[in-house]
Amino acid sequence: MPIDLFLLGAGGHAKVVLASLLARGHRPRIFDEDPHRVGGDLLGFPIELLDQASLPPHGHIAIGDNGARARLWESLAARKISWHTVIDERAAVAPSAVVEDGVFVAAQAVVGPDARVGFAAIVNHGAVVDHDVRVGSCCHIAPNATLGGGACLGKGVLVGSGAIVLPGVEVGDRAVVGAGAVVTRAVPPGTTVLGVPARRRSY
Questions:
Q1: Structural domains in the chain, sorted by start
Q2: FRET pair for 43, CA 20 to 30 Å: which of 13, 14, 18, 160?
Q3: Longest C-alpha distance within the chain, in Å?
Q4: Hey, which residues are catalytic here?
């Protein structure tokens, strides 16, 4: 029988996570920090105001923004919550892959052999995390993005929709890879790269 869970977040990404949980028989409580959302509903589930002191022991941070997800994880560290990994039943995760706590793997996503996906990362619809890839904590691999074999992402990286990181390429902490970009060489931390081949954004 499914354990009792809560979802933290009631935006668009939370709808996707909730749909995956419902397919597996979960009926989670929904919490959000935004008082304007409280009293509404998420796919028919009432949205409650976040009260850290009364959260259930098992949950998932269902917020697409990497920084917000990391902030909430850190602020709740003292609560010793068991963070639930959500893998959609239509995703493909290799038996030798390591998927850490709090990760979301969406429908049609692939996590290949010996890949490692760090805490609270998102592997969104149709994304491919190929063999031996390393994905840091609180990253977001957007829909239909591809990480080639042996690629390495630092913490809090955003890889935009349809982007490609070529095999073996490293992307530093909190970097952003624009939608449709093709990353052919290392990306320094905190850098935004765009285009084909991907180059640092200029202002």
A1: 6-83 (3.40.50.20), 85-192 (2.160.10.10)
A2: 160
A3: 54
A4: 131
